[in-house]
Automatic annotation (TrEMBL):
Catalytic activity annotation: L-threonylcarbamoyladenylate + adenosine(37) in tRNA = N(6)-L-threonylcarbamoyladenosine(37) in tRNA + AMP + H(+)
EC number: 2.3.1.234
Compartment(s) where it occurs, according to its Swiss-Prot or TrEMBL record: Cytoplasm
Protein name: tRNA N6-adenosine threonylcarbamoyltransferase
Superkingdom of the source species: Bacteria
UniProt GO MF annotations: tRNA N(6)-L-threonylcarbamoyladenine synthase activity
Pfam families from the UniProt entry: TsaD
Record-listed substrate binding positions: L133, V134, S135, G136, G137, D166, G179, N277
Function: Required for the formation of a threonylcarbamoyl group on adenosine at position 37 (t(6)A37) in tRNAs that read codons beginning with adenine. Is involved in the transfer of the threonylcarbamoyl moiety of threonylcarbamoyl-AMP (TC-AMP) to the N6 group of A37, together with TsaE and TsaB. TsaD likely plays a direct catalytic role in this reaction.
Length: 336
């Protein structure tokens, strides 16, 4: 089985072809980073236009690299939400058009399900597993019980983890996107700030919160101004440590809660752009090991937004005979 996947829900335009042997036959990605950089964040109208401009040629390049034609496909999958609606409409419309013209099945993929199933493409992880999804737009803990069966244990009550990194970087005068900039700055820390709050520590639920930590950081920045490079490094490291410890504590809670539902939990899986953070990875590996669970962290290109996970998710559904109607309406909001 061979499926073409399209991703256009945020600021990456992407296409990929995968098969049911878990091989990515080809993938192409255009990052709109430069388009949005002057604004310090993603501008929806700019994103939609860029998707429209780049998606067609990108799909052609992907098919060429895979060495196949549309007639060889067993289906076309596209992110149909949640996300910035202009971009989602571009991707879904393109997928439907290819499906209609070539008489192929179409599958409307929930972007979050794409993240949830990416570890099955990279590592063939068996159900049920615990997923920590930490990106710029999402921050949640899910028990992935089966295809189409997801139980949300907790989510952020304010900012997403990536959003917190981005806002903290701005406070520290670092570049956008903030996560990689904070990680880089933190590497030069000589004496990380230790007394920033660890949000939600010890709470009995599995929710996240980062706005209090951000406020504490802002106050500290105001007290210390003007910031020397050394202070920036120590604050960046302090912030990174606080976020990491907070997330690890939430994950520890979630492992216990997940095991109450599913005693045969197979793994802790991490996905989303923040999963690129080295300190977080190290800390999660320790948390998982203490709970006697393997930590599965797919390669970074599969953790951030990509089309291979969308193609794979479409494939998992299409393999079960599930398809979407060609009048499926894209959904800006679409909880799993
Ligand atoms: O999954 P993603 O590429 O896009 C979506 O938000 O859907 O995630 C992007 C987020 C940004 O907020 C970025 O700052 C964060 O992931 N990020 C990181 C790192 N690399 C990217 N956060 C912390 N440490 C990193 N190394
Ligand atoms: Zn995403």
């Amino acid at each position: 089985m061979i499926v073409l996947g399209i991703e256009s829900s945020c600021d990456e335009t992407a296409a990929a072809v995968v098969n049911d042997r878990r091989q990515v036959l080809a993938e192409e990605l255009f990052s709109q980073f430069e388009e949005h950089k002057p604004y310090g964040g993603v501008v929806p109208e700019v994103a939609a236009r860029a998707h429209l401009e780049h998606l067609g040629p990108l799909i052609e390049a992907t098919m060429r690299k895979a060495g196949i034609g549309f007639a060889d496909l067993d289906g076309i999958a596209a992110t149909a939400g949640p996300g910035l609606i202009g971009g989602v409409i571009v991707g879904v419309t393109m997928a439907k058009a290819i499906a209609a013209v070539h008489g192929k099945p179409f599958y409307a993929v929930n972007h979050l399900e794409g993240h949830a199933l990416s570890a099955r493409l990279s590592d063939d992880v068996a159900f049920p597993y615990l997923l920590l999804l930490v990106s710029g737009g999402h921050c949640q803990l899910l028990v992935v019980e089966d295809i189409g069966r997801y139980h949300r244990l907790g989510a952020t009550i304010d900012d997403a983890a990536g959003e917190a990194f981005d806002k903290a970087a701005k406070l520290l005068g670092l570049s956008y996107p903030g996560g990689p900039a904070i990680q880089r700055a933190a590497e030069g820390a000589t004496d990380p700030v230790r007394d920033l709050p660890r949000p939600m520590l010890g709470r009995p639920d599995c929710n996240f919160s980062f706005s209090g930590l951000k406020t504490a950081l802002r106050q500290r920045v105001e007290e210390l101004r003007p910031l020397s490079p050394d202070m920036v490094a120590n604050l960046a490291a302090g912030f990174e440590i606080a976020v990491t410890e907070s997330i690890a504590d939430r994950v520890k809670r979630a492992i216990a809660a997940a095991r109450e539902r599913m005693p045969n939990l197979t793994a802790l899986v991490v996905a989303g752009g923040v999963a690129a953070n080295q300190r977080l990875r190290t800390c999660l590996a320790e948390t998982a090991a203490k709970a006697n669970l393997p930590l599965v962290a797919p390669p970074i290109r599969l953790c951030t937004d990509n089309a291979a996970m969308i193609a794979w998710t479409g494939l998992e559904h299409l393999k079960r005979g599930e398809t979407s109607a060609l009048d499926f309406a894209p959904r800006p909001r679409w909880p799993l």
